[in-house]
Structures are given as C-alpha cells and as structure tokens.
C-alpha cells in the first residue's frame, strides 16, 4: 500500500465536502494483489443481471439473514486484514472501521462486474447491514454518484456528488451518506465533466493522468463490496429460511 504509511489513520483519507462520512485510499492493494483477486473470482459463479454480473459470498441473504458460513480465504486476505489494520484515529490505534459492528468484521461480499455502458440504479443498501461499506475496485476507474435530498425529503433527480474510484482503491462509506443518500453508477461508456470542482475525492486520487479534458473511457470494472450482515443464523437450514440445499 504505497499511500498508506505505518502511522496513517483513516481520518487522513476523509473525503471533504460530502455528507459524513466517506474515506478514500487510492492505493489500497498492489498490482499483483489486484491481478490475484481477479484470477480467483470463480467464473461459474456469476449471475447475469440485466445491467451487470454479480456474485454473492458466502451466500445470498434470506429474509435479511445470512447463513453462518465463513468467507473464503481469498476474500479475507489481504483485504479484511488490512481494513482491520487501519486505525480510525491516531489517538486510538486499536479501533478500526468494524470495531463497533455486530461481528467486528465484514462477513459478506458482493462482487459486481460492470462492462463499459453498464451501471447500477440509484439505491440505498438497506437495513440488513451494519452501516459501513468497504468497496475495493479492480480493473478500471468508475464514478459513484451520490444523490442529494430536496427540502421536502425527496431525492434529487441528478447526482449532487461524484466519487472517482480508481483500480486498487478502497472507498469506505458510513453514517449519514450510508443511511440518508442514494448512490448509483451511471450506464455510460465514458465518464465526463471530471475536475476538482466536480469530483469530491479529486485531491485524494492517485493520478489524474487518464483524465483528458475532463473525460476518460471506462474499461471492465469489478468491485468487491464488504459489509457486516447484522442477522446471522446457524439454524437457517433447520427452519427452512434458506430453502433446501
Ligand atoms: O460497485 C460498486 O462500487 C457499487 C455497488 C453498490 O452500489 C452496491 O453493492 O450496493
């Protein structure tokens, strides 16, 4: 992790100007780690959706509940270990992003693959999860759009903020930005209108070299989103909430 030094804490990576709180670490994993992760994603496991491909690890939720099984080792090392190693603040080096979550660690990963032109509709992640999402990006940069709220409480139709996620980066969203704001990825082949005034994490980017006249063309991008599912059941199979297996 070239940009995360031994003494670093998450506060150094806070994205300013967004609803609280979002953090962006541009070089969270190395090139080799990125390639190893892409190689390990099992091809037969993809579920084709209309606008992207999806894998759910260790399994899909049923009634917002996760069957108690572990994540495979390749989804734990190096990512979860490294998330645990980043202190929230310099004053309390033991406390990390999942210290206060029900299981003290992510127990669930969604893997999404977007080809150029694909995206995900604006949505909230909902109540099944503790309100922390850690997203690792692989393969290509992409912009996550975050939507504002009008005075009467409805969501604005155009995104208010844009977070540029580079390959090998980690984005953490939590708090108000998780609970109160919709997020989505536009179905476009090219990101446009990018600059210091439109990209909230501009100052935290590893490089802006690929952005020419405020634009870049997307390549296939894979994301790993890590969350802690609040309800975990050891007895799900017995009571049939996960169907027959
Ligand atoms: O792929 C991403 O970065 C976003 C995925 C997402 O919005 C979600 O899993 O809820």
TrEMBL record:
InterPro entries: AlkB-like, AlkB-like_sf, ALKBH6, Oxoglu/Fe-dep_dioxygenase_dom
Keyword vocabulary terms for this entry: Dioxygenase, Iron, Metal-binding, Nucleus, Oxidoreductase
Entry GO CC: nucleus
GO MF annotations, alphabetized: dioxygenase activity; metal ion binding
Primary subcellular site in the record, as a coarse category: nucleus
Annotated localization: Nucleus
Family matches, as PROSITE patterns: FE2OG_OXY
Domain Fe2OG dioxygenase span(s) in chain numbering: 105-230
Family per similarity comment: Belongs to the alkB family.
Protein name, UniProt field: Fe2OG dioxygenase domain-containing protein
Species assigned in the record: Hyaloscypha bicolor E
């Amino acid at each position: 992790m070239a940009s995360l030094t031994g003494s670093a804490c998450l506060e150094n990576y806070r994205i300013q100007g967004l609803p609280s709180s979002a953090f962006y670490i541009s070089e969270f994993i190395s090139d080799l780690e990125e390639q190893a992760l892409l190689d390990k994603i099992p091809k037969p496991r993809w579920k084709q959706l209309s606008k992207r491909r999806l894998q759910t690890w260790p399994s899909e939720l049923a009634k917002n509940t996760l069957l108690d099984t572990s994540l495979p080792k390749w989804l734990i090392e190096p990512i979860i270990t490294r998330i645990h190693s980043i202190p929230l603040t310099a004053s309390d080096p033991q406390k990390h992003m999942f210290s206060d979550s029900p299981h003290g660690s992510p127990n669930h990963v969604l893997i999404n693959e977007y080809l150029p032109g694909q995206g995900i509709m604006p949505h909230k992640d909902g109540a099944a999860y503790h309100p922390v999402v850690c997203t690792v990006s692989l393969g290509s940069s992409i912009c996550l759009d975050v939507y504002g709220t009008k005075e009467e409480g409805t969501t604005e139709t155009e995104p208010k903020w844009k977070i540029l996620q580079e390959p090998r980066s980690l984005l953490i969203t939590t708090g108000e930005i998780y609970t109160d704001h919709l997020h989505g990825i536009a179905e476009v082949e090219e990101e446009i209108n990018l600059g210091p005034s439109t990209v909230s994490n501009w100052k935290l980017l590893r490089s802006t070299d690929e952005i020419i006249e405020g634009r870049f063309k997307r390549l296939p991008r894979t994301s790993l989103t890590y969350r802690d599912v609040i309800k975990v059941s050891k007895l799900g199979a017995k009571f049939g909430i996960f169907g027959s297996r």
